[in-house]
Every structure is written in C-alpha cells, then in structure tokens.
Amino acid sequence: MVLLIITILFLLSNQTQALFPEPELLDITWTDSGDARYTKLDEKSALVDLWRSSSGIHWATTWDLRQDPCVNGWHGILCDEYGAVISIDLPRNRLSGFLPRSLGILTSLIKFHVNDNLLTGPLPKSFSKLINLESINLSQNRFTGSMPLAASTFPNVVLLHLAKNDFDQSALPDEFLKMQMNGVDVW
After folding, report:
1. pLDDT digits (tens, 9 = 90+) for 17-74
2. 113 with 90: CB under 8 angstroms?
3. pLDDT in tens, 76-116
4. Which of 88, 101, 118, 181 could be cross-linked to 96 through a Cys-Cys bond (beta carbons 3.0 to 4.6 Å apart)?
C-alpha cells in the first residue's frame, strides 16, 4: 500500500513539472518583475464593490479578495506602475447584477469592457467621472435607463460599444453620431 502511494506521488510530481514550460520559453513581459505596487485602497474597495454587486462568487473566473488586484493579478484587472487600476476587462465572465456607484473612484481607468454578461440597471452617475476612458464595451447586457451621454464627452474615447442593451432610446443620440463622424468606433 505504501509503495503504491509513493508510486502515485512520484507520477503526479513528474506530471506537474511537465505542465510548466522551460524558463527560456516564458515571455517575461507578462510576469511580475517584483516592482508591482499595491492597489490603492479606495480602488481595491471599488473593485470589491463591483465583485459584490455583480455576483462575483458565480463568475466564470472569480477573484480571491484576500489578494491584491495589482500585485497578485486579479483576472481582467491591469494596473499602472503606481497601483492605479487602468483596465477592467471581464467579457463573458458571467457577471450578473449592476455596476456600483463606487466605480467612479477608478479615475485612471482607460479600458472598461464588461460585454456579454448579464448586467442590468442604469449606469451609475459616477460613470461620468471616468474621463480617461479610451475603450468602453457595455454591449450585450441588460442595461436600462437613458444612454450614457457622459461617454460622448470623454475626450479620449476611441471605442464605444453599447449595442444589445435595454436603454430607453432606440436610436443613437446626436452626440454619438458626432463621435462616429470624428472616427470613434460607436455601435
């Protein structure tokens, strides 16, 4: 019996080693250099609010809230060198619920993609504080209320996808048409 257990452990340890590529094959630009900064406390709180308000426990790939988003690399989160969250990229991750008001705390956010989920309700008014956004994809959810006109005033936005939601307007407001004319990818 003991010999059988030792044999199984030996075989498992050899399989585990084969799962990882040789160090020279790793792309070190995707690994932590050790210089990562901890996430700003208020920004981590906003991410935890997002997790709670969108049923994070049921996501396809969830977060370990005991860990730090920037240092430990939460799924779909990228941070800058100062510990500010610059990207939330959670498409098709089974988010269901709503976006929290605290989302407006993430003022360094450049990319916000939560498309192909089950998010509902109106966008929080604090969404208008995310003026550094360049890429917004809210498509294929169940957002309600009026179209997020604040997005049309973001100076850096180059991609704005809002299709297949339950917003009140059936056509794009003039502000969005002007954005299209200026080269922004709007749909």
Report:
1. 444 445 444 444 444 444 567 888 899 999 999 999 999 999 999 999 999 999 999 9
2. yes
3. 999 999 999 999 999 999 999 999 999 999 999 999 999 99
4. 118
Q: Enter the pTM of the model.
A: 0.75
CATH number, domain at 138? Answer: 3.80.10.10
